[in-house]
């Protein structure tokens, strides 16, 4: 898959350029390859090109892939980046390394209870709604700290940071505001000795990764620029 190799090189070049512009270290920005609606073969090829973090949106599709790619399970991280309903938390807790879309305490509690003892604590991010009313997912920015505080107390979870999904034209918070919120919450949590591993600001996708890196993103989630366009779900 020659195009995949070229796409990955292109994205890597964009990340490096953005890091130089922002005066940041390349190693401080993780690349999450968003593989939703793309085949196991493509994921395998991307892995062979050196990518080790994959993001999926739909639980059942993701689990089929995770099982299919069991032989490399120990070498890759699977991140859930799609909305999570409470009847699917057990599957998420059993199969993923990260869940980035926690936006209410009940979901976090279920993930904590359902995370198998034999696995490391589940890494979670709190999803913040930066687009105001009318968007369904994410906690309101004013409530993000309280939710972080509560989630940090749950035993089988490791609170890693914040994530947001921009909706062009609707956002009431800019990427820069999101960075400000992240820093305030991080400082408060550290001051209270909660969530020592709160180090992740998951913002930036194919179209805005440069802006996100400028705004302090530590994890960009890139789908189209790596795998090409998706056949949308019917
Ligand atoms: C699909 C998706 C992405 C990747 O978007 P691209 O524009 O294809 O890079 C990133 N984050 C989330 C939450 C997504 O659902």
Brief digest:
With 234 residues, the protein is α/β, with parallel strands linked by helices. It has helices spanning 2-22, 40-48, 59-68, 89-95, 105-114, 141-152, 175-191, 209-214, 224-227; strands at residues 30-34, 53-56, 77-80, 98-102, 122-127, 157-163, 200-202, 219-222. The chain has an eight-stranded parallel beta sheet with strand order 7-6-5-4-3-2-1-8.
Description:
- This protein has one domain: Alpha-Beta Barrel (TIM Barrel), CATH 3.20.20.10.
- Helix content is 41%, strand content 16%.
- It has 9 helices and 8 strands.
- It has an 8-stranded parallel β-sheet.
- Helix 2 links the parallel strand 1 and strand 2.
- The two termini are 26 Å apart.
- The site of pyridoxal-5'-phosphate (PLP) has 13 residues, from strand 8 and helix 9.
Domains (count):
1
CATH class: Alpha Beta
**CATH T-level topology:** TIM Barrel
Instruction: Classify the helix fraction into a percent range.
Output: 40-55%
Strand order, sheet with most strands: 7-6-5-4-3-2-1-8
Low-confidence stretches: none
CATH superfamily membership: Alanine racemase
Rg (C-alpha, Å): 17 Å
H/E topology pattern? HEHEHEHEHEHEHEHEH
Q: In the CATH hierarchy, what is the architecture at level 2?
A: Alpha-Beta Barrel
**Averaged pLDDT:** 96
Tell me the distance between the termini: 26 Å
Structure classification: alpha/beta
Ligands in the model, by name, code or SMILES, are: pyridoxal-5'-phosphate
Number of DSSP helical runs: 9
